[in-house]
Design a protein that fits this description.
This protein is α/β, with parallel strands linked by helices and 747 residues long. Helix content is 49%, strand content 10%. Among the domains are: 316 residues, Rossmann fold; 80 residues. The relative contact order is 0.07.
């Protein structure tokens, strides 16, 4: 230590037996390869990683086998070379005892590394001080480094302090919990890597100073760190601070208070005070990642307890079964077998020893019943207040216990339940042997579940209100369109009544008006389609799940808008033609039973029949409720067509024109033996003008059928196949009309 650092105290705390000399008297040993490695995808706080390998794949040591999912996440790497034998749900080392997805690797024994190198070499730089901060953070994230002191928070996320300016970096080497000596042995044997990691962290944070807090029961580690400071010429920039041995001085908030005298506010983070705290094991892992490109695939784990013959610390690959590590340490299971992951204060008993070692496994404690007796049944609280005296977070453990037991979670939260660090000091001093920490963990889990349910309900409410609003808007738009149509119809009716009885062109003018009305109907339909497509496009832009449909909606919208422009031009031309059309006298102005009038009536009925059939086909394709009504309408229209056709044929038979009748009879008699064409077919054959109208109408039907099919494909409807069949039918009819027109020389 080169600077005088004033130390401070925190309230509470206890002094349990240390029991550290059993495991820190021999060097760190390297554990052998097990028969399989089980790697949970969720070894850190945040979202679990997403597998990028499949069963049967061959992987190399250090290869990425799972990528991070979201910002607060970390990737996973293969600890050795081998084959992916399974990706399945297995029980994981967690207090809940639940199962999660794991990647299982069968080692090949070669331990072949994937290609890797330091960040300086990767970027082609001469000095590591020139590495940009974003590249350092990217390397730390890519190497899957998470906090190795127990919490497992992704390190790159914690170092991304945002708007907070950091002036102090603290490395936590206190390791205050009994039995655990993993950080102690790391600082003794890898002090240089710890100091190098501190240099990198200072470069990332831009902090002015670094304090390494180590309890005074680790003199060998303190001496090794001081030597490493001299080796790296950092004895004037980084301070190794010796702090009194007290549990839980290794808690993040408690260590900050000891070294700086500052208290992290309730619900706040150290960065708000300009401080970032990292574990010494995390710093060493950062040095390996930046200088050598080695990801986090192993860690130092303490194996101790009286049920273990060969106590000590092991450098063990992540995913190694606990049973394998215990076997290497000479584990002798007692009659009441119990293995604790972590220390006696904050650890949890494992349901089985087949669980894997993960990034946060700092200790495996295998005590005998005599060494660590099983808890006796809890007795009634005597309100002694010892728990409040021992609490390092200045909480009211007794009050939190009552609230948790009564499931009054809102009151527990008001009493700062989430400030509890679950150190177990209150349970340790409780004379009634009440498992207070277990009650607090239960309450925290219940509150988190309530929050998740409330958030889900809020999202459902927002979606429901948006749906109701959309339905009301669509209903209002439909009502407005209906009123507009009704007003237009009333206006047209009044104009028709005011029109003079005698018209200059009784045949040509109604036909022109019919064409104009048809174009106006098409324009209205296209405008409605544009409005509907815009709504769908807006909804797709708001919903990330429909983002892939946006190009189809935009294309359909552009086509419909082009069609509106074309229809507007056609309407203008039709109006102009209707005004300038010369009066033409019909062959039979006043007789409604003339062949010409009856033929027109027949053609009109046939066109309406075609429209009715088209609507019926669309309704059947979309599964509408109006199919039965439309089918009845088609049948009625077929009857009308038959009646109009019969009337037309009767008028032809009674025509006074002998030449027409003689010509018809001659045509029938001349073709009786060689041609199947009947008088009905000859009479019904449309003239060239009518054929051109039918051809144009059929082309319009084909275009509409194509638009409907394109919209159905864009929306992923089930009616795509039916609409394709309908389009093929329309194309066949168009081909027939074009063939007929070509034979008459019209095309």
């Amino acid at each position: 230590m080169t600077h005088l650092i004033q130390l401070h105290e925190f309230d509470g705390g206890i002094h349990p037996p240390e029991n550290k000399r059993q495991s820190n008297s021999r060097p760190i040993r390297k554990a052998s390869l097990p028969s399989e490695l089980v790697l949970p995808l969720h070894q850190h706080i945040g979202a679990p990683a997403n597998p990028v390998v499949a069963v049967g794949d061959t992987v190399l040591k250090g290869q990425v086998i799972a990528e991070p999912e979201g910002f607060v996440s970390a990737p996973l790497h293969a600890p050795t070379s081998g084959k992916i034998s399974a990706i399945e749900a297995r029980q994981v080392p967690h207090a809940s005892g639940l199962s999660e997805t794991c990647i299982v690797i069968e080692p090949d024994g070669e331990d072949t590394w994937v290609e890797h190198q330091g960040l300086c070499d990767t970027l082609g730089l001469d000095h590591c001080d020139d590495i940009p901060v974003d590249k350092l953070l990217e390397r730390i994230r890519d190497c899957g480094i998470a906090g190795m002191g127990g919490a497992g928070f992704p390190t790159a996320v914690k170092l991304n302090t945002g708007k907070h300016k950091i002036d102090t970096l603290i490395l936590n080497g206190a390791e205050c919990e009994p039995y655990i000596t993993a950080d102690d042995m790391l600082m003794r044997e890898h002090a240089s890597e710890v100091i190098r990691g501190a240099q990198i962290l200072l470069q990332i944070l831009g902090a002015e100073r670094c304090l390494i807090g180590v309890e005074d029961n680790k003199p060998e580690a303190i001496a090794a760190l001081d030597d490493a400071l001299v080796q790296h010429n950092e004895e004037h920039h980084i301070d190794v601070v010796t702090i009194p041995t007290k549990y839980p001085s290794g808690g993040e908030k408690q260590l900050i208070q000891i070294l700086t005298g500052k208290e992290v506010p309730s619900g706040g983070i150290p960065a708000s005070l300009g401080i970032v705290c990292q574990n010494v094991g995390t710093a060493a892992a950062i040095a390996d990642a930046v200088d050598f490109g080695r990801p986090l695939i192993s860690r130092i784990t303490t194996v101790t307890g009286d049920a273990v013959r060969d106590k000590g610390n092991w450098e063990v690959l992540l995913g190694t079964p606990v049973s394998h590590l215990l076997s290497l340490s000479g584990y002798r299971p007692a009659k009441r077998e119990r293995v604790v992951m972590g220390g006696p204060m904050m650890g949890f008993a494992l349901p089985t020893t087949e669980l894997p070692v993960v990034k946060t496994t700092n200790c495996l404690l295998a005590p005998t019943e005599k060494e660590l007796p099983t808890n006796n049944p809890a007795m009634a609280c005597i309100r002694c207040g010892l728990c409040a005296d021992a609490c390092p977070a200045d909480l009211l453990p007794q009050q939190l216990y009552w609230f948790s037991k009564a499931q009054e979670f809102d009151k527990a939260e008001q009493h700062n339940l989430f400030d509890c660090i679950e150190c177990g000091a209150c349970s340790y001093v409780c004379p009634s042997e009440i498992p207070l920490v277990q009650y607090y963990r239960f309450s925290k889990g219940a509150i988190r579940e309530e929050r998740a349910a409330a958030e889900k309900a809020e999202q459902a409410r927002i979606r429901y209100e948006a749906r109701i609003e959309r339905q009301e808007r669509e209903k209002a738009e439909k009502e407005a369109k209906r009123k507009a149509r009704a007003e237009a119809a009333a206006k047209a009716q009044s104009v028709k009544k005011e029109a003079p009885a005698a018209k200059a062109s009784p045949v040509a003018e109604p036909a022109a008006n019919a064409d104009l009305e048809k174009l106006q109907k098409q324009l209205a339909a296209a405008q409605a389609a544009v409005a509907k497509t815009k709504e769908k496009l807006e909804a797709a832009r708001e919903d990330p799940e429909k983002a892939d449909k946006i190009p189809a909606f935009e294309s359909a919208l552009a086509k419909t808008q082009d069609k509106i422009k074309t229809l507007a031009k056609d309407i203008a031309a039709a109006k102009k033609a209707a005004k300038s059309a010369p009066a033409a006298a019909g062959p039979d102005k006043g007789d409604p039973n003339s062949p010409e009038r009856l033929q027109k009536k027949w053609e009109t009925a046939a066109a309406r029949l075609e429209t009715a059939r088209k609507r019926l086909a669309d309704a059947e394709a979309n599964g509408a409720d109006t199919v039965d009504a439309l089918r009845a309408g088609v049948e009625k229209q077929e009857a009308r067509v038959a009646e109009a056709k019969a009337a037309y044929e009767a008028s032809l038979n009674s025509d006074a024109s002998a030449s027409t009748g003689a010509s018809l009879e001659t045509a029938v008699s001349n073709n009786a033996g060689t041609d199947n064409t009947s008088a009905e077919t000859v009479a019904a054959k449309p003239n060239s003008e009518q054929l051109q109208k039918k051809l144009l109408a059929q082309k319009d039907r084909v275009e509409k059928a194509k638009e409907r099919l394109e919209m159905a494909r864009a929306e992923g409807l089930d009616s795509v196949e039916a609409l394709e069949k309908a389009l093929n039918k329309q194309l066949d009819k168009l081909a027939a009309f074009e063939a007929q027109a070509s034979t008459t020389g019209e095309v």
